[in-house]
Amino acid sequence: MPNTESPTFIAVREAACATVHAWELKMTPFAGMTSAERKRAQERIILEFVYRPDDFDEIDERERPDFALRSNADTEPFGVEITQMFPDGSHARVHMMPGYLESLWEGARHRHRDDVDRLQATTAKVTDKDGNVKHENLPVVLVEHPPTRSDFHAVLAETIEGKSRLNYDHTEFQHINLIVLDWFRLDFNAQRYSASLLLNECVRDALRATPFREVHLLTYDTGPDTSSKAPTTDDDRSVRTLRRVPLKELMLLDRFYSACHGINEILDGTDRDDDAVYLNRLACEFVTRRLEIGKIVNERGGPHVQFGSAAVALTEEGKFEILEFLELPDIHDEAVQIAERLTAEQEERLLEHLSKGALEQGLSYETYDPPSRPRRSRADLDGEN
Q1: Is residue 197 part of a domain?
Q2: By C-alpha distance, which of 365, 366, 367, 359 is closest to 193?
Q3: Is the alpha carbon torsion for 179, 183, 187, 191 positive or negative?
Q4: Are residues 178 and 132 in the same domain?
Q5: Is the separation of the CB atoms in 256 and 287 below 8 Å?
Q6: Alpha helices, DSSP H only, in 201-293?
Q7: How many Cα neighbours within 13 Å face the side chain of 149?
């Protein structure tokens, strides 16, 4: 159950389903700010979910990209662009327009014609999982057509592509990263999920083409709470935690890992079926040339595929090795060429294998607690009025 201390909720009602799922929409801590000031404050908080201010000598606010971060005076800065991703304009207005929900409950007109059919103000009875009534007449706004995973993929791809088309001066920076805050709030178990949950071909195409070195997706973990040693179930998480998923790194691991498994099946029964070095070279060549993901670089004495801020390889012991360059400058100016490759027939078999599977243990990382986030409650705000 969500925390029901605050009376501000947005509820999503599934079509042909009587269950009402409610999520808390916290009172905006940006009271008194102009729209531009509020946008900038939100961008700063989103930035600090990924980057700790104490790790940098300079964090400059600017435009295109939104921030320039420098670890010390002797290094070139890297840039960070910030954006938020909503299922549609109605969701965006609910979250971004202060007081919009309250005005709907009071009978005010919708602020956009698209909201008339999508946002319906009413009251609801809220119960816990055992059927106990927690609120009898809770003000809610119902969204009749909740977003789907297909909607998520489409909007994520459009968001990456739209931000990639903006005019950035890349000569000023080592590189530029993109941070996307996800407001879809779909089910996402960060402890165990398939890469296909976040990636489809449209998203992969957007990641291939984007000039951003990394695209960090900030999304809420709806899986069981693993912070306690006690046994947990999917119903045990009462507070959603924000997780960071570097999408280029996820895509690299997904396709490389799946390619290695497919190639291993192809080589089974041949005189090279236990040659991890050979398998790695075939995988590096296939992933970079046929799948058009990254480039081959020499690291630790052997070829790796680098894509964005990460590189991956299969070691001679048959273990997957992941290297993260994070915000370090790219020292690999030229790609390494590998002569070995699969036959045309083997490549078609491998492509068929890749179309049916994905990495089943996706990755995610903890986010930081933003020091710029205000710690004011609704009572604090009411006390100021």
Answers
A1: yes
A2: 359
A3: positive
A4: no
A5: yes
A6: 201-209, 247-267, 276-289
A7: 9
pLDDT tens figures, 276-324: 999 999 999 999 999 999 999 999 889 999 999 999 999 999 999 999 9
- Give the model's pLDDT for residue 122: 78
Could you give the C-alpha distances from 254 to 250, 269, 280, in angstroms and in order?
6, 25, 15
Q: Report the number of distinct structural domains present in the chain.
A: 3
Is 215 found in the same domain as 155?
yes
- Domain endpoint, select from 186, 209, 239: 239
Report the relative pairing of strands 119-127 and 78-85 from DSSP bridges: unpaired
The answer on 180 and 54 residing in a single domain is yes
pLDDT, tens digit (0-9, with 9 covering 90-100), for 172-194: 999 999 999 999 989 999 999 99
If 0-12 CB within 10 Å is exposed, 13-18 middle and 19+ buried, where does residue 160 land?
buried
CA distance 141 to 120: 5
Distance, CA of 138 to CA of 106 (rounded, Å): 13
Distance CA 296, CA 299 (A): 9
Strands 119-127 and 133-143: antiparallel
Average pLDDT on 132-155 reads 86
Query: For residue 102, what pLDDT is reported?
Result: 72
Q: CA distances (Å), 90 to each of 42, 45, 175, in order?
A: 19, 23, 34
Report strand pairing: 9-13 vs 133-143: parallel
Phi, psi of 179 (to 5 degrees): -115, 125
Cα gap 245→216, rounded to integer Å: 6
Domain final residue, candidates 210, 239, 268: 239
Is 8 a member of any domain? no
For the segment 223-230, the average pLDDT, to the nearest whole number, is: 70
Beta carbons of 193 and 362 less than 8 angstroms apart: yes
**Domain hosting residue 127, numbered range:** 90-143
Residues 187 and 190: their CA atoms lie apart, in Å, by 10
Question: Does some domain include residue 335?
Answer: yes
Looking at the structure, do residues 171 and 299 belong to the same domain, yes or no? no
Residues 6+ apart with CB under 8 A from 8: 24, 25, 26, 27, 101, 102, 139
Cα-based torsion angle of the residue sequence 44, 46, 51, 53 in order, rounded to the nearest 10 degrees: 30
